Amino acid sequence: MSDIVFLSGFMCDSHLWDRVAPGLEADFRLHFGDLTRDRTFEGMAERVLAAAPRTFSLVGFSMGGFVAREIALKAPERVERLALLNTSARGDDPEQARRKAGLARAAETRGFRGLSRHSILSSLHPDRRGDEEIVASIREMADRIGREGFVNQIGVVRQDGHGELSRITCPALVVWCRQDELRSLEEAQELADGIPGAELRIVENCGHMLPLEAPGETVSLLRNWLSSSVAA
């Protein structure tokens, strides 16, 4: 039985994968990295590697995809396959970096009051914005992570990673969702074009929060990817 390490997105914890895990846990050992305790992607990657099995397949969602790329570059002999879901290799522009630094300072001085309903709804397909179960799940993950995790994650300055993509040599899958308003098809295509041999898959009728909105499709994509990689 092989191992899969899952990396969640911004202000999401392992519960992001609660709807996906039942479709995989009979055939794979599932592990969930902690991305809440460090203030750099390098530090997050080192923490994940310290707790991970000797070799594993790696699934990074959104912000977790940035850390997943760092891990694949840092320990290529350990990463058997790489799946990047709803993520990017683009860096922050100066205005984004200033805004995020300001949010980090505000949370440190005034506290963290949770994610706004607007920010949660913008991550979902328009037809799912009335799904209070999904909305509550996202809000609860952020509340569990809290102020320290928010400050750590929002404070990371994201550097452009396109120049490093060609160094990723393991089988790679890139997934983008048609109604993702946070990440564009162009960003997904840049990843797929930059990683040698990477495969791009598009999920229809889904917003940014793929593991919550379309868990069955997520399981199917990952199973097919793992099977085809093994066969290759």
From TrEMBL:
Residues 4-219 form the AB hydrolase-1 domain. Keywords: Hydrolase. SUPFAM superfamilies: alpha/beta-Hydrolases. The keyword Hydrolase applies. This is Alpha/beta hydrolase. It comes from Nisaea acidiphila. InterPro entries: AB_hydrolase_1, AB_hydrolase_fold, AB_hydrolase_sf. It holds the Pfam family Abhydrolase_6.
